[in-house]
Write a structure and sequence with these properties.
Blueprint lengths: L5 H8 L5 H8 L6 E3 L5 E3 L12 E7 L9 H14 L4 E5 L4 H6 L6 E2 L2 E4 L1 H5 L5 H21 L6 E6 L3 E3 L9 E3 L10 E3 L1 E3 L4 H8 L3 H10 L1 E5 L4 E3 H4 L2 H8 L6 E5 L4 E4 L14 H10 L2 E5 L4 H16 L5 E6 L1 H7 L12 H6 L1 H12 L6 E5 L6 H13 L3 E5 L1 H4 L5 H12 L16 H11 L5 E4 L3 H11 L6 E4 L19 E10 L4 E6 L18 E2 L5 E2 L3
Parallel strand pairs: 3-16, 3-17, 4-15, 4-16, 8-11, 17-18, 18-19, 20-22, 21-23
Antiparallel strand pairs: 1-2, 2-14, 5-6, 6-14, 7-12, 9-10, 12-13, 14-15, 22-23, 24-25
Helix pairs in contact: 6-7, 6-10, 8-10, 12-15
Length: 558
Amino acid sequence: MSAENPDLAIAQAATLQPITEIAQTAGIPAEALVPYGSYKAKIDVRKMTPPATTATLVLVSAMSPTPAGEGKSTTTVGLADAFTLKGLRTMVALREPALGPIMGIKGGATGGGYAQVVPMEDINLHFTGDFHAIQIANNTLAALVDNHIHQGNQLGIDPRRIQWKRVLDVNDRALRSIVVGLGGPAQGVPREDGFDIVVASEIMAILCLASDLADLEERISAVVIGFTYDREPVSVADLGVAGAITMLLKDALLPNLVQTLGGTPALVHGGPFANIAHGCNSLAATKLALSLSEITVTEAGFGSDLGAEKFLDIKSRLGGLTPDAAVVVATVRALKMHGGVAKTDLATENIDAVLAGTVNLARHVENLRKFGLEPVIAVNRFPTDTEAELQAVLDWAAQNGFRGALSEVWSRGGDGGLAVADEVLGAIEAGGGSDFHHLYDPAAGIEESLRTLAREIYGADDVVFEDRAPAQLRMLQRNGWDTLPVCVAKTQYSFSDDPVLLGAPTGHLLHVRDLVPKIGAGFVVALTGAIMTMPGLPKEPAALRMGVTEDGESIGLF
């Protein structure tokens, strides 16, 4: 086993069950299985009649992360394997990894150690081609918009007011703002344009919220690509190409089936980021898992202020989901950072800093309580943690009336998640999500929705609308779109829109600089602070450590 890449080495050494056996375990009939090789498949839900049951739904969230991540996916997978070990029919529903951050910071996003979904290399790289299909569908629509203008612009689209951008599954800051159509009349109409990353595309959000092909096409038809010279919205339906875009996505809409190292069936489908999109796997996959299992474990990106809030206020609202329990993943190293310790000093024992950082963890627990959930704190052990530091976190949780347990799934797989599983089952038995409710009513308007989130979830005093936001707010109100749920694009590192403001800040302002209607997805994106919808690569990208062996095996994924 490679000391440098233990996650990859563990995954490569594992003996996987044929995907047909995993499907049989999950209750998926053979006729509904569309194999992509021996260990992954798509599920054609049109060829199966799922049982009319609904499983217990467990949502895994986390405290505000460090740049390297805190092992939320690892904890999610390990917890699912723990439920399997306890004899519960379990499924796990996760997002697909994006190549941009894999090549940038993360290096991989399928869990870690002995708590992974596999085949790890396939899932992290190109998997079943869903992201490529979304990229092509998005960019085909962009080409059709520019072609419509070039061919006479019958709809009167104002090139200055096109909001549909091209996308790429690469962190490429050089493409954030570009000019297209240069080179003379034959090359199109010159205009300003830009690229987002694939996971920020409205097509990604639509795929993850659509219930079936008909719903997918209806949502694509409603997408607003821009505005006319008279400032009237122009939709994909106006262009007459919704059918073509839907056709490009018909296979991508089908959920993907893989497995965990513990043999638990896993649905890995869809992948919107939580800091710039709604941060949840597909609704279709989640509902399929709920229909086939006794307990479904799913995650939402980053902390309670991002993915979890969007899961509860957007995905659950649009999909009719009612979570029964929640988990907040915490780590000693993240607590230290929020307690004032520099990243370079995280390996040094510092119980005072750990306890100082619990203000951040407490805020995340209280945030989930505001939705009527009683979360369990899973303290994810890292090799540099000391016993005294870990015990200090567990003691703090007990003293403050929070459920908590040590998670050792990275080193022990499902066995290392049994303590967390017991606490989750205890929380469910004590009432679970029986009082679940959404935090705000969209009917009150975008301004009120944002103020509620700012005050209740971020600890802010108020919202400031600046730059394009005031004009966009008037546009939303004029078109009747201001009563849609709001999806806040915000840094993951802080409750505020300032990534260096750690801990649990209060008294700050949420700076909203733009409001972008995503009518097909069914929400409005609020861009805050300096958040970018096309990330850039770090000084030393993870790609520098990657390669392949002579046998074609990957190196450097972790």
